[in-house]
Design goal:
single chain; alpha/beta; five-stranded parallel β-sheet; 20 strands
């Protein structure tokens, strides 16, 4: 048993906030009870106690689109000319990197990414992986690291035709094998999805094979959709239809599928997404950094589409993604009133809805019976914090590195900024060594 208390508890349960006199009792991986702190201590006398010291206590953050493998690009010279468009970014950087990765590279890019995620208060991720030079075993390698660092993870491998039939088939097999493995665990800590790159790098032949091999898996698909205008243009040119129309024709869409970005979709595509109950994941920093345009995320939410928030590997800090989304849509729409409602809904409500379609238990909320994914953030408000304004306090006052303590699945993973049971210096030292070797090979 574990009790967490003496902080302001943001429950995410109908806006309820509890004061320092309240506490959370954790039994195993679940929240057992929330109530008066003194009474909980008396009731569960043998429980360990974490004193939040007046800080914020809130559910762990969820990142619904991440690229762990991208971590080794930090500081790297791609040895390519400065890109002028999105395709040149893919060809000159990301597709070079993923072709060069080894399983050892994947292991250490996962280790440093998971460390960074924990330090920034993220307790659940949906990762989209690519490593054309080391496909087989890649998801299992990341999964071993997820288990070692106790971060809740959904993993997939992005199938694509861009590296030839052999690698495409290996990607399909890696997805199938991993999804079956994750299902066999019957554990909310690890799940699998069927990864696809994007419409413009997937032939009809490949999508037909994907549908055949995914039959009965029930995992849903994780795919970039209309991230850059190129995806729409190539799809229309080759297949006579737009991206979402094509994916729908192949029965790719649905409530367990993640359509990532959707930056360039039109009204008809929005209707298809809504009618198929397909979640979309918005990645504002990545879209800005790649200069692909601003997602119509606000319009999608108004149309009833479930839009979540991710980072696309651009950062491990979901608070940062939240801040960027808030500013981006105000700027894009030239409306200072925009995004106040929609962005908190993306990150705190819709990310939870998306995750609960892939696991068996409640998450992203502090209530009895929910999974005990809890963070403590060092933030002292200098104005009143109420049930009407706590999202504004988080937006303007909290960043990922405010996270002091992370509890995932009932286990204390980080306490007082120290990640427990991990030799970080050894990991970072080894990571610098093998990433340098990777850079030399590119």
């Amino acid at each position: 048993m574990l009790i967490v208390g003496n902080g302001t508890i943001i429950t995410r349960n109908n806006g309820k906030i509890l004061d320092k006199d309240s506490g959370i009792a954790i039994d195993g991986k679940f929240i057992k009870e929330i109530g008066n702190l003194s009474e909980l201590k008396e009731k569960f006398r043998d429980a360990a106690y974490i004193d939040a010291k007046g800080m914020l206590i809130m559910p762990g953050m969820i990142n619904t689109h991440m690229h762990i493998y991208s971590s080794f690009a930090r500081g790297m010279d791609s040895k390519s000319a400065p890109p002028k468009d999105f395709l040149q970014i893919l060809q000159g950087l990301w597709w070079k990197l993923d072709r060069t990765l080894t399983l050892e590279d994947i292991k250490y890019s996962a280790l440093v990414s998971y460390l960074d995620l924990i330090k920034n208060g993220t307790t659940t991720i949906f990762d989209h992986h690519a490593s054309a030079g080391a496909v087989t075993g890649s998801l299992f390698t990341i999964a071993e690291t997820a288990k070692a660092l106790n971060v809740r993870s959904s993993l997939c491998y992005e199938v694509s035709d861009r590296d030839g039939e052999k690698i495409m088939l290996a990607g399909i097999n890696e997805n199938v094998d991993f999804i079956k493995y994750a299902d066999s665990l019957n554990d909310d800590m690890l799940t699998g999805m069927f990864g696809l790159h994007a419409s413009f790098t997937l032939s009809d032949k490949t999508l037909n094979l994907v549908k055949e091999k995914s039959e009965g898996l029930g995992s849903g698909f994780h795919i970039h959709a209309a991230e850059g205008i190129l995806d729409e243009e190539e799809t229309e040119s080759k297949y006579g239809k737009r991206v979402i129309e094509r994916l729908n024709d192949f029965n790719i869409l649905g409530e367990k599928t993640l359509a990532i970005h959707c930056t360039h979709i039109n009204e008809r595509e929005m209707e298809i997404i809504r009618d198929t109950n397909t979640p979309v994941v918005h990645n504002p920093e990545s879209n800005m950094g790649n200069a692909v345009g601003c997602s119509p995320a606000i319009d999608m939410i108004k149309k009833g589409i479930t839009v979540g928030l991710g980072t696309d590997g651009y950062t491990c800090d979901m608070f940062e993604s939240m801040k960027t989304a808030n500013i981006l849509h105000k700027h894009n729409l030239k409306d200072p009133s925009s995004a106040w409602y929609e962005v908190p809904r993306m990150i705190f409500e819709n990310n939870r809805i998306i995750t609960e379609r892939h696991i068996k238990n409640k998450i992203g909320i502090l209530e009895e019976g929910a999974l005990a994914d809890i963070i403590i953030a060092d933030y002292t408000p200098h104005t009143p914090l109420t049930e009407n304004n706590f999202n504004s306090h988080i937006l303007f006052g909290v960043s990922g590195r405010c996270t002091e303590t992370s509890i995932i699945n009932g286990k204390v993973v980080m306490k007082d900024r120290e990640i427990l049971g991990i030799d970080q210096e050894r990991i970072y030292s080894k990571s610098r060594e093998i990433s340098k070797k990777l850079w030399d090979r590119i």
